[in-house]
Write a structure and sequence with these properties.
It contains eleven helices and 20 strands.
């Protein structure tokens, strides 16, 4: 018996689950979750469900500390993977008339090779450019009349700078029409800029190496959410704290079960990505349900008075208010009820202005936070450089409840 089965059997036994308990799709919620730790702790091949002789490719995640996650593929897994990336590209309009420059890292990262084979399956002309060497990338855009790209969004802005150094106008002198972008979070305002600078349609995709690669979901022409390929992945949304399954349209953590994976099938895998799943008709005609663009990561979440609060939500509200700087700290006190205090720096001008200006700004921030978070908060506006700088959740959040 393969080790992956032993691991799952142990997990099922731990929760007292027997084979006869699983009769239909609703019984899925009885199955325990699989997590990144399960994969890490069974490094390298503990989660394999086939003999090693059937594994034809390995990738790994980019684990910066400790063991990475190993991803294994059978021949069939690779065919399915190519089929799914082809489906993603076809959804954004790539076909045999396109010249497709794939500017995502090849090697161990799943983004490069994943889309390479998908584009070939569509009979597009594929340029396996990989990342880096920007002048050469731009020269190929021009000389090979590239029409479609796959890239990290921020890299495209670097390309725009290099275009201007090379006296190339990205709209007049190039032939780009569409692009699929991912591998880092990017907002709709970045989309607008990308589309303006290059004269293209820019689409988001979603995926994770644990499923195969960036092939789980993609935006269609409507750009109103990403169609998730429900014939390959069974998607659920759960409350990240209680683990309870949530209704269609509710925001929570995406949990995926692979339906076709052979080498490393995963049952109820917790992606740690926060989104909304909705099975509504889309005007593009694709029948697969849609997830919203990612709304955060469970690592960025705190629970206050029973409500899940994401740092990204707080940041979104604060950064839209003129006069407020991007340095903030969240303090949670427990008195009778949890109290959420948000300390945020304002610009020097505002801080030195009339007290009335500060009060108006504080009221505005509190009102807007209340609307978005559904929680009353106390905003304290402080002078510039008074909050210690530092990235990451630990510095941003001071939680007196856990002390
Ligand atoms: Zn659609």
């Amino acid at each position: 018996m393969h080790t992956a089965m032993l691991i799952y059997i142990k997990k099922f036994k731990d929760v007292g689950l027997r084979p006869e308990d699983i009769k239909d799709i609703d019984d899925l919620t009885k199955l325990p979750f699989t997590t990144k730790d399960n994969l890490r702790n069974n490094y390298p091949f503990g989660m394999l469900a086939v003999p090693m002789k059937d594994v034809v490719r390995l990738h790994t995640s980019s684990g910066t500390t400790g063991n990475p996650i190993v991803l294994a593929y059978t021949k069939k897994d690779l065919e399915n993977w190519a089929r799914l990336t082809a489906r993603c590209l076809s959804t954004i309009g790539v076909n045999e008339n396109d010249v497709f420059q794939n500017m995502i890292g090849y090697h161990m990262f799943t983004g490069g090779l994943g889309y390479h084979y998908g584009a070939e399956l569509l009979n597009a002309t594929v340029i396996p450019a990989g990342s880096g060497n920007t002048r050469r990338q731009v020269k190929m855009f021009k000389d090979f009349k590239v029409t479609a790209v796959h890239a990290i969004p921020s890299y495209m802005f670097h390309i725009a700078d290099v275009c201007s150094e090379m006296n190339i106008d990205p709209i007049q002198d190039l032939y780009l029409k569409k692009g699929i972008f991912g591998a880092e979070p990017w907002s709709n305002s970045i989309r607008d800029r990308l589309e303006d600078v290059f004269g293209i349609n820019a689409y988001d995709n979603y995926g994770l190496s644990e499923m195969s690669g960036p092939d789980v979901a993609v935006e269609c022409e409507c750009k109103g959410g990403l169609h998730l390929w429900s014939d390959y992945f069974l998607a659920e949304i759960i409350d990240p704290v209680s683990g309870e399954r949530l209704e269609d349209g509710e925001k929570g953590e995406l949990v995926l079960t692979t339906l076709c994976k052979e080498a490393m099938p995963l049952i109820r895998y917790r992606t740690r990505d926060i989104t909304i799943l909705a099975d509504e008709e889309c005007s593009c005609g694709i029948k697969h349900p849609r997830i919203s663009r990612l709304l955060g990561r469970t690592d960025d979440m705190i629970v206050v008075r029973g409500t899940n609060v994401f740092l990204s939500q707080i940041e979104d509200v604060l950064l839209k208010i003129p006069g407020i700087r991007d340095n903030y700290q969240i303090i949670i006190n427990r008195d009778v009820m949890d109290e959420l205090i948000i300390k945020v720096e304002v610009t020097k001008d505002i801080f030195n202005d009339e007290p009335f200006t500060l009060l108006a700004l504080k009221n505005r921030a509190e009102n807007e936070l209340r609307t978005v978070l559904n929680l009353k908060t106390t905003v304290e506006l402080v002078e510039p450089q008074s909050i210690p700088d530092g990235p990451g959740k630990t510095k941003r959040i001071v939680d007196f409840r856990s002390i």
